[in-house]
Amino acid sequence: MKDPKHPYTQALISSLPRLGDESPRKGLWGTPPDLKNPPPGCEFHPRCPYAMDICRREEPMFTKYENEWKVRCWLYLKR
Question: The pTM is what?
Answer without folding.
Answer: 0.67
